[in-house]
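Give me the fold.
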Amino acid sequence: MKKFIFILTLLFYTNAFAVSGNDLYELMNSGSKLAALKYIQGLVDMQTYIKNSDRLISIKSDKKFEPSLYICQPEGTTYGQIYDIMNKYLSDHPETRHQDAANLLFGALSNIWQCKL
């Protein structure tokens, strides 16, 4: 598990591998919409896995689960809806597009669907 978290840290905090908001917005508004959708799907799935793992660890240990660190989209939410939210967010906030797309995605979604478990 520690190795997995280390690899995720490298992927999301090493600028050489980071996808920017500009990159994602360009994908979303070109012929590569499927690539953008799959990128978003991967980020949301990863966050769900980490959230569920963190929740399980907190049950089995004295570590407190912090739901406010995660998003909790309503049941029935589609990746297409999340795609639309992100496309609108990037369109409405061009001043932030130079930032990492993952951070922008979770920032936009946490404003809408912050966990309150």
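The longest helix spans residues 33-60.
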